[in-house]
Amino acid sequence: MTNQKKLWGGRFSEATAASVEEFTESVQYDWRLFRHDIAGSRVHARMLCRQEIISGEELEHIIQGLNAIEEDIKNKKFEFKTEFEDIHMNIEKALIDRIGPAGAKLHTGRSRNDQICLDTRLYLRSESSRIKNLIREVNRTLVRLARSYQGAIMPGYTHLQKAQPVLLSHHLLAYYEMFKRDLARFNDCLKRINVLPLGAAALAGTGLPLDREYVAAELDFPEISKNSMDAVAGRDFAVEFLSNCTITQLHLSRLAEELVIWSSDEFGFVEISDSFCTGSSIMPQKKNPDIPELIRGKSGRVTGNLMSLITTMKGLPLTYNRDLQEDKEPLFDSADTISRELAITAEMLSNLKFNKKRLEQAAREGFMTATDLADYLVKKGMPFRDAHAVVGDIVSYCLKQGKKLKELTLDELQRYARVIDRDVFDILSEEGSINSRLSLGGTAEKQVKKALEQAEKELEEPL
């Protein structure tokens, strides 16, 4: 018995084993590429007609058939069959069944190798655009929060220990900068995604008179692959996309971690809306920050998806190998996960309430203006390392006396450095410390105001 039910089965004398069909099929997940697959097929068919490889009548039948198949898939009336392995073969077989011999001409001049590369690039182009818009919305929300809490003071931390007082707006804008870089990375990645692979065929190109420039223009690809082997074997654009997703995930996770900490009773810096929290099945008093916890928890799968594709690619000889089928699920999962996280993060941030009183109280605890005192001594001519040691001695004295730095008298301060004068008290307050940080990018209110204005201007720029 021959393997004629397979579109590639002409040279086979035995039918594919059912276990092999089950193991090798990918249509259970790559069906999601149907829009991209059909869009590429329409343009490919038009190009074949322009090159007089198929007739105008055949083109009309092909386009009508593809349109009908697309509508059936959208309306869940299309039956995907595992014996046809993937999205390409399912659509092609359905087209042949519907329109006859003309459908069998659609695959002229192309291979599933360059076809799947095209579909994947079209998919990633669409997903990159969606993710960019979602990142922009998170940044809009962060800027709105920073603007509404302008002037609020909080402790800044290193090693999760109170370090120096900062403005809450400054802290929020740090995440704005992170996500802005994420946006730039997805924009830059599009340069590598936006390269047309169709026309590379299986690996060596084709002897048919294809017009790749026409296809590129119709599908809005600014660049055409220069090497047919690289076109079908390369997946670095997909690795780059997953890398970008992973970096964005890490930024989302860091923000989520701070929300988990800040919303605890021990900190009490922020209240997450009840509508974004859950309760305990046994402890009635609990209000759990499940959304940021889940965002934090999904870091493992997004990072794992990147590692999965890198590991798949690392030892593959040129050109196409079936291993490359394993690129779809990591791409789909990371794109879906990041999109959902960005959307709910923007929504959750819009429903946060910061406790300004508690933030300020925390900022006034400890010795967070110690560095300001050291800088003061430097300005008076003392070497920094000497100033550092002097301030360390003063802090030690404060701990023994149960005093804060700003509670010390001038006489007490001058025991450690005669150069200290009354103007020192201007910088020992939290407000004085903050507003002394006038360096570009610092937390001084003047600098944060400029940063807010710049961010608001950037958010009006086109993506």
How do you describe this structure in short?
The protein is mainly alpha-helical and 463 residues long. The chain has helices at residues 18-24, 27-30, 34-50, 56-74, 87-99, 101-104, 112-148, 168-193, 212-218, 228-233, 236-262, 290-297, 299-313, 328-349, 356-363, 370-379, 384-401, 410-414, 430-436, 445-458, and strands at residues 153-158, 161-167, 195-196, 223-224, 270-272, 352-354.
Supply the key terms:
20 helices; two-stranded antiparallel ribbon; mainly alpha
Report on the structure:
- With 463 residues, the chain is mainly α.
- Helix content is 59%, strand content 5%.
- The protein has helices spanning 18-24, 27-30, 34-50, 56-74, 87-99, 101-104, 112-148, 168-193, 212-218, 228-233, 236-262, 290-297, 299-313, 328-349, 356-363, 370-379, 384-401, 410-414, 430-436, 445-458; strands at residues 153-158, 161-167, 195-196, 223-224, 270-272, 352-354.
- The strands form three sheets. A two-stranded antiparallel sheet has the order 1-2.
- Strand 1 and strand 2 (161-167) form a beta hairpin.
- It is elongated, with a radius of gyration of 31 Å.
- It starts with 17 loop residues before the first helix and ends in a 5-residue tail after the last helix.
